[in-house]
Amino acid sequence: MARTPSNMIELGTRAPDFALPDTVSGKTITFADAAGPQGTVVMFICNHCPYVKLMEADLARFGSECQQQGVGVVAISANDAENYPEDSPAAMQQNAQRLGYTFPYLYDETQQTARAYKAACTPDFYLFDAGQRCVYRGQYDDARPGNGKPVSGRDLRAAVAALVSGQPPLDRQQPSLGCNIKWKD
Q1: In the 8-state DSSP scheme, what is residue 131?
Q2: Is the distance from CB of 138 to CB of 125 less than 8 angstroms?
Q3: Which has the least CB within 10 A, 5, 41, 46, 103?
Q4: Contact between residue 40 and residue 33 where contact means Cβ atoms under 8 Å apart
Q5: How many other β-carbons are positioned within 10 Å of the β-carbon of residue 166?
Q6: How far apart are the C-alpha atoms of 39 and 32, rounded to whole Å?
Q7: How far apart are the C-alpha atoms of 149 and 145, rounded to whole Å?
Q8: pTM of the model
Q9: Predicted confidence band at 5 (pLDDT cuts at 50, 70, 90)?
Q10: Strands 39-44 and 71-77, bridge-based pairing
Q11: φ, ψ at 114 (rounded to 5°)
């Protein structure tokens, strides 16, 4: 596990499209399928990363809250499942069901979607407005394994609140920090 910060793509960047299998429903999901009328959260997560494990229960609540506000949510795992079997689609399905995710949990086997988003770590978060332009990229909050700070989702929840209320993007956007995405050779 290498502590890796997220790449801070330029605000206003258009969301790359994707068509990936949902590990729970088996359906292929595109960005348009996941999008909400107010905007869309795209998160790169995985099952085995301690940074994600720290917040995974709160991510389930966060996803539900967003959907109630008209913000779509989608989670994507791009990790090499051959070398990290805990991140396999079958394990992703079990994790999503155990946690009660109300949003799709997609598997990016080719890793092309992760590369298109310039995702670097798990977790990595992006918020796009209704026009599919990036208004937030960065951390969920300041909680990290072992630092004693509570998981609140403060940063991403504030970005969603600003979006839904028609406010401009937040000035303070900190990179996420987590495990590097497990790229295939």
Answers
A1: T
A2: yes
A3: 5
A4: no
A5: 7
A6: 11
A7: 9
A8: 0.96
A9: confident
A10: parallel
A11: -60, -40
